[in-house]
Model the fold of this input.
Amino acid sequence: MADLLYGCVGVDGRRKRKQREFRSIGFTIDGYTDEELRARYRFGKESIEYITNLLADNLRRKTNRNHPLSALQQVLIALRFYASGSFLQVVGDTVGVNKSTVSQVVANVSLALVARQQEYVKWPRQQQELGSLKTAFYQ
Done:
C-alpha cells in the first residue's frame, strides 16, 4: 500500500520502470583548430577524417533500438585515449560517456585498425632489406 502511495508501483500492481535518459554526445572536430586537434588527438583534421572514413564500415552499428555513437565519435574517443595515455574513466569524463563505453570503443577501433594492418604495415621480405632497415633506424 505504501508503495502505491509513494508512486513506486503502478495501478496494475507492477513496479514502475524508470524511463531511460539518453544524453546527447555532441563533440565534433569542427570547433577546433588544427593545432588544438593535434594537442588533443595527435592528428590533424584531415587525418582524423581519413581514419574515420577508413574505419566507418567496421564501426557503424546496425541498430534502431539505441543511440549508437557515430564512427567519428568512436575514432575521437579512441584517439583521445591513445594520445593522452589516461585511464578510461578520465577519457569518459572528458567526452561525456561511461567508462565501459570508452572500453568498448577503444577495443572496437583497435580491432578495426588491426584489420587494416596489411594495407599499411609492410615488413621487409629479405634479410638484406631487414639489415638496412635496422641500420637506418638507429641512425
